[in-house]
Amino acid sequence: MSETSDNARFVREFIRPAGLDRPATDVFVEAVERLGASPAPAPAATPLTSLGVRALLWPVALVAPFVLSSESEGGTATRGARGGGLAQALQVRRDRLSREIEKRQRWEEKRQRSLQRRRAAEGEERSRNEARRRQKLARTRERETRRAEQLKERAERLALDERHKNAQRAHRRREKSRHAWLKWRQALSRRIRSRLGLT
């Protein structure tokens, strides 16, 4: 009875977590489709130190099986008989390892050169973009300066015109006042003469 309940719980929790009433095929297909639609993870870059450590440990990994097998078999005669074949196999493996290391070094040098060229191109592009941005900024500031100067000149002309108009209005008021005073003076002089019988 306990085994049956354990099996049922295992099926519910592990094999059919979406529910016993839902087909497992549909759940599996949806999971595969979600996985296919998700972006691929970026490949992890292998550091240069790891390549160096691998290169150093590779000869040890190649020699270890022969050393272990020779120790397990035992016997000086067996080791002597197999010594020549082991040395030849090690030499072949060393040559292959050397070629592989040289190949990896050439590939790394090529990758570094490509990376340097790409960085240089990106640096030149950034410099050109920065130069264009500065030129655009300089032209914008020049336009703003000219606009400010034009506004200043216009304001000065308007102020000058306003002062001129104010001066003209003040002059007209003074002339009007002077003419009114002269007219009043003449009228007063005529009245005085009329009363004195001088007219």
Task: Outline the structure in words.
This protein is mainly alpha-helical and 199 residues long. The model is unreliable at 71-83 (pLDDT under 50). The radius of gyration is 52 Å and the shape is elongated. The protein is 88% helix and 0% strand. It has helices spanning 2-15, 24-37, 48-73, 76-196. It starts with a helix and ends with a helix. Helix 3 packs antiparallel against helix 4 (76-196). The chain folds into 2 domains: 1-35, no CATH class; 48-196, no CATH class.
Strand proportion, as a percent range, falls in under 5%
Q: Structural class per helix/strand content?
A: mainly alpha
Count of helical segments? Answer: 4
C-alpha-based Rg, rounded = 52 Å
Q: Calculate the mean pLDDT score and round it.
A: 78
Order of helices and strands: HHHH
The CA-CA distance between the termini, in Å, is: 153 Å
Count every beta strand, where a strand is a DSSP E run of 2 or more residues: 0
Largest sheet: none
Secondary-structure blueprint:
Blueprint: H1 2-15, H2 24-37, H3 48-73, H4 76-196
Helix pairs in contact: 3-4
Task: Please supply descriptive tags for the structure shown above.
single chain, 199 residues, mainly alpha, 2 domains, 4 helices, 88% helix, 0% strand
Brief digest:
The protein has 4 helices and no strands.
